[in-house]
Amino acid sequence: MCKCRVCETNNNDFHCNIAGDNICRNCCNDFQLRNFKDSWSGLVKLVKDEMEIYNISECCLKCKGLMRNQRVELTGDGSIINYGYNGKYVFNDMVDSYSYKFFNKKKIVLLESMNSLDITGVYDLAEGYYLLEEYEKAIDLLENLEGKDTDSKVLLLLGKVYFHANNLQAAIDCLLNSIKIHGDNSETYRILGEVYQADNNLINSAYYFNQAIKYFKIDAYDRPNDYFPQYSYLGLAVVYSKLNQHNEVIKSAEKFLESQYSWDTLVEMLYEQRSGEKNYIGFGGFFACATIYELMALSYLEKENLMLAEKYIDRAQELNPENTNIATTKGIIIGRKHNDGKISEYREQISSLRQNIELRASSINKLKTLRPEEQVKLFTGNEEESVWGFLVGKIFDNLKTIENLSPIVTPSQNKAAEEDRYTDLFKSHMDSNLVDTFGWITHTQSRGGYTRKEMGDRGGIGERDIVIRSHQNKDLLMGEALILKGKDTASIKTHTKKIFGYDIGNCNFHIIINWGFSEKPDSVWKDYRKLVISRQEGIYAVIENGETENLYPGINKQGIRTFYTKHSTDVENEVATAIHVYVDVLKQMKREGAELARKK
């Protein structure tokens, strides 16, 4: 009898696309719920990498084991969500935003497999498309749905889809018709307020935000009629700012802040995050709070209350120190405190700052739907900021954190940890900075994973160590990491060459992280640089090199050794950029040792 390929019992229920053989129902459940036992881990070579799990799990969407004839119950710890239609069920774990996204993919597969759908099935399928940002598919389904004009829930969903597809008038029509049918749904009013705000109809926007607040309620089963009621207050704060009603801005902002962490708690969490004591993956609210504090500061500045203006701009700067507009506002407040100049002298500058903060505040709940270039400009308040300059800054911040934390994984002053131990630590901290704000994620290669065959100049051997990927599934950066102890010519040449081979999507932006374990880091780094820039011929030859701070002015290197190289590519007129860094984990290990010796 054919056994399960994973647990080797005599039970086998499905042919598994991942195992390439028959497996039992329990092992299939374990994989879909990411309950990886030793047998699964050994088979697919997965260790801790969420995105690699999802990439591999795409195979599940075409497997017979995806759909079941009954709900799947959770055994043991964890979380589970089921969806059923017409006697068929799909399920998934619920640990992060990507698991929810993947669950919607499963739901779509189930519904698309049906010969026909009733109004509930069509709604659920359209909602799945909407949540995966496939707006045209959702619109086609809902527009052709018989009876849509008498169903407030369908009209609300269609209105949201049109809004995200930037068809504002169609969104307004759908939402108003939904209200005619069901006039006390808070979410419908809030979305309508957001649409009118985007259309710059401020009076209507304020009216519908206030209606959303009026009709918000929680039913007997603890289900709210809007899961994001705080955004009504945020929307009002923006509208009142545009209408120059600064007292109302402050009132609305204070109401919004009531739904967030207290300032003291927020500061404590930030300290833990930045010091590396804790890692708040999915740490929500800091960008929204920074934005609302900045909006309050500008309103207090307009009211000539410089003490409170400074209080709230300081809070905004604490939460978002990279934002140039916050720094400018702080400068104006300080200038006003130390001279007798009138607020009118700063009128043009303040007007520009307010327009920027109003744009950012109104885009908070849509930030993850924007292009990376737009996200970075909104987040930093700097129209000149590039995705790559922003990424390099974030990377340096996190590399410094990892340098400080490296003794956790370094065995001793005489022995470095495996390269992937440092790299996984880096990944974890990069995620906490990018996932919640932008929806970007850092993922690392499967430890011991498969090795691709040689595929030419693009698509080389093995797996890249680091990839930072946007919420739109676009590779923004690829990275390679190695332990650097000395002038290991062969290893350096290999690592600095193969990074280009992985870039089959022409990302053309790379980082090479050297986890430094040398007694003479300056000498080793000099030799490394000389070896890298000696590549003057052939594809990916170095055509330019220099200091990273010259490529990205204003970057804080955090004391990390770094330089950049630019390379020719296999595509005419395309240039690839590589940032090289040396993270001195040996120095940090010695520092920790010296500190312990002093204490003794």
Approximate shape: globular
Structural class: alpha+beta
Our measurement of the CA-to-CA distance between the termini, rounded to an integer number of angstroms, reads 65 Å
Total individual domains: 3
Radius of gyration, in angstroms, nearest whole number? 27 Å
Estimate the mean pLDDT confidence: 83
Instruction: Give the biggest beta sheet.
Output: 7 strands, mixed
Number of helices: 24
Helix content: 40-55%
Please tell me about this protein's structure.
The chain is an alpha+beta fold and 600 residues long. It has three domains: 1-93, no CATH class; 263-380, no CATH class; 388-599, no CATH class. Helix content is 51%, strand content 11%. The chain is built from 24 helices and eleven strands. The chain has helices spanning 25-32, 38-44, 50-57, 97-112, 119-131, 135-143, 152-164, 168-181, 186-198, 202-215, 230-242, 246-257, 263-275, 286-302, 306-319, 324-337, 347-362, 372-380, 387-405, 419-438, 489-501, 521-533, 548-551, 585-599; strands spanning 14-16, 21-23, 81-85, 88-92, 441-444, 466-469, 475-484, 509-516, 542-546, 561-568, 575-584. The strands form three sheets. It has a seven-stranded mixed sheet with strand order 5-6-7-8-11-10-9, sandwiched between helices. A two-stranded antiparallel ribbon has the order 1-2. A two-stranded antiparallel sheet has the order 3-4. A hairpin with a 6-residue loop joins β10 (561-568) and β11 (575-584). TPR repeats lie at residues 152-185, 290-323. The chain crosses the membrane at residues 280-301. Keywords: Membrane, TPR repeat, Transmembrane, Transmembrane helix.
